[in-house]
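hiii so my PI (J.) wants the whole complex modelled not just the main chain, which honestly fair. so below is everything: three entries, each one labled with what it is. i double checked the lines twice but i was tired so who knows lol
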Amino acid sequence: MSNKIPRLLWLAALFVLAVVVVACAPAEPTKAPTVAKKIVIGFTASQTGKLNVESKKQIQGLELWKDHVVKAGGIKLKDGTVLTPEFKFYDDESSTDRVQALYTKLINDDKVDFLISPYSSGSAKAAAVVSEQYGKIMITAGAADDATMEQGFKNTYQTYTPASRYLTGAIDLLAKFDPAAKKIAIVHEKDSFSTSVAKAADPYAKSKGYNVVLLEGYDSGTTDFAPFINKIIAAAPDAIIGGGHFADGTTFAKQLYEKKVTAKVVALLVAPPEPKFTEIGDAAQNIVGPSQWEPLATFSEDAAKKAGFAWYGLSAADFTKDYKAKYNEEPSYHSAGGYVAALILQKAIEDAGSTKPDQVRAALDKMDLLTFYGRVKFSTEAKTHGKQVAHDMVYMQWQKDASGKLVKQMVWPLEAKTADWQPRK
Amino acid sequence: MNLWKQPFLWATLLVILVFALIPIVTGSAALREDWLLILLYLVLASSINIIMGYTGYVSFGHIVYFGIGGYVAFFLIQQAGMHLVFATLIGGLVAVLIAVLIGMPVLRLRGAYFALATIGINEAMRNFVANFEPFGGSVGMFFNYEVYTAYGGAKDALWLAYYGMVVVALAVVATSFFVKKSKFGLGLMAIREDQDVAQVLGIDPARHKVTAYAISAFFPALAGALFFFKNGVIEPGPAFLLHRSIEGLVMVMLGGYGTVLGPIVGAFVYERLRSFLITNPTFSSFHLFIAGLLLLLIVLFVTAGVVGWLRQKSPTLRRVLE
Amino acid sequence: MNIEALLASSIDGLMLGFVYGLAAMGLTLIFGVMKVINLGHGPIIALGMFIVYLVATQLGLNPYLGLVIALLLGLAFGIVVYFLAVHRVINAPELTTLLATFSVNLMIIGVGTVVFTTTPRALAIDLGTWQSGVITVLGTKAVAVVIAVIVTGALYAFLYRTRVGKSIRAVANNRAAAELMGINSTWVLALSFGIGTMLAMISGGLLATLFSFTILSGGIYELKSFVIVVLGGLGNPTGALVGGIVLGLLEGITTIFIPVGWVPVIEYVVFVLIILVRPTGLLGAR
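here's the output for the full assembly
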């Protein structure tokens, strides 16, 4: 025994020396030695289940970010460290139960460095509890619920405009274009996100003098909207706002059309901005949807300079171009949300010059920048820490062009519009 | 009964305790998470065994008590700032109360009708909670993060939930043993074999059944309270998940129904299998197929389960294993 | 209260009730013949949805042709399930068959989730609409009602007019006596299980023409079938159609007066109460 240990030590020392020599040999002697490290980012994806359409877009956004970083040679820190991002993810089947088990596993077994949230407020909420319990930094993407971000969290940062601001614009739009309108029906999915939206839209509509003739929620996974549509027909509203996520929102729009419901404004959450929404054909015509970002958005480095913001990352045009080249489909705001969540993390790590949680957290708290996705800044108040306070929404509408094809137009706010809003027939 | 002359009980408790101590000694959060789930299923399976294995009443919707315990405790902790220990106990007592009220009429039903009624009760409760605003409706409830500071931060709170689960697991095993060995337990088994004969022998079936049902509701409620405290979020879907209660049945059948050891073995084997498959990208839901296949094979060929089979094969084991 | 809305909602509920009734018919037939509550019912309904879906999207055939394929596959599948999972325990206590059929449920869900995932699927069928005032009837729903009625009529004729059908009823009445009369009860039981499964698959196929679905969607209809079965009387196939219509109408009417979310609470409470008070069902023979 006593003889063996020194011999082993010698061997080990020789080995280390050899590695150092090999590692240093090609480097320029004048430059600080670069240290290559990997950085593991963990998340779950709803590859299957009711949220798979939106989640897939979000993951594609994340993957595109990784491609870009790898192509640029990694995340370069001031001290010469180069970080190569790696993803570790599981399928959460759109179930919050699995989200919690899997985030616990990502943190404990896979020992990831940083977390990105799963898609949807419900899933992100479940993940945030776990990440907070273990003090891991998590950037949420595809999660807009207000209440989640009002729990005094310390490590969770939100990229989306909060849910309370999702449909207020649709009410403003109605007020502007149809002053005679009086009645609004709110029919929403009963999940965290859509309930949050409805809870904010209802008092807002009333404060603007509208009569909310119907306010009702439907279960996640509802496929038959006939009971709600019959109530809507009875109430004869001028506008119908609500919805939830892609699967149910698309079905809702389709059944409204089949039942020949004639409300001038139909504004639904999440589903309309997804290009796949047009698969329901004419039922998609003139449906309005709030969007976190649209490919037509015009945020640019010049604009940022004029307004006095820091600019970071690529332009919207480049994002859209690269995204189409990689996936052969249009990006949606869910794609941009995925990309920007990772981009924010990258920027914070670069600003911090380290991957130490405390320093990255400090960098995130200080962050105020403009990206292709718009402006990003987080609340630093104790109760709402990490909540998104700067990003704004736009409203899109599917309109028929001269050849009868459905095209996406931005209709609100007026400064950003690409076409005039059209009433639904 | 002389407590010191029950080597089986002491050995079983000791083995569970030793395993449960591994995460505590190593301080590994990953192991703690694994063992918390195993103990959770152990509690669920052993409780179902009391009403199903000893008494012969298959409670398909037994998860309803897990959900009730979870919701009541969560509500008390969040709204009234009550300490976990008290909230958990109250959650358990509420579940017992509801079990007695539901049990009195429903346990009069026999066989399949009872099983169907328990499914109906679970679904009614799930839908009720999903519409019940004080419990957050279908969005459920969510801890303000400050809740954990009362326990010295989230890290300590998670360990506390684990200690709680260990205690509940040991308690359920001891209860399961004493029920089986008691005169009360003999009464239950007489009802299982033939309720009419049992009645002739002077056993009050209604009283026995309701008591057994209440006991079997108590422990899952405690486990539910601890589990959702750990999760920090509770929603109607995961709280009243019918599949979870049926997985509990599978564990009982797998290990051997009517034995003390069976549900423990069943819970361990099944939960290990489930967590092994859950992160497999292709076969993440395959545990359901395996559960189904196991259940079918047991029902068709080895009705007694693993422990029951061992007891049948060896007279020595029959004397040792309960 | 708006009478027109009530009328529109009642008609929607009524039409859906026919399909609910068809879904419950298989469950009640199997129970009537062999006293087995088939807990694999829900996933079998979902399989029917997928058969029609795959026929329409993969083979490019008319989805209604898929119903015929679902019918044949359902019959075969049911007979296979009977011999694999039920036959060995047919004389065991009811609890054993509950567990055996539930194992079938778990296996279908397990494999189905792996193969089909839980991503929602939908068929795009447009058969036009018929409108009068506030009432709008979809072509697909009208066709579903007609098919449900035809299938019920065919089942009735089969059970009462054919030799095989009569032997099924004989076995249901008294298996031992039927055997003494020279009826091969094993095959009659297998056939009954096959027909029950077939009915579940057809109803699933019809539902697929109306709504989007996943492999888990059968669960809701299985639970509704339980409610219908106790409404219409356990073991009474034609009672199931009546039970389905009653449930559909109840849903249609109540949704107008209370938030839609409370409707299932009422359904399940009524279900438990009926089991407690009158386990043979409200319309049951005894």
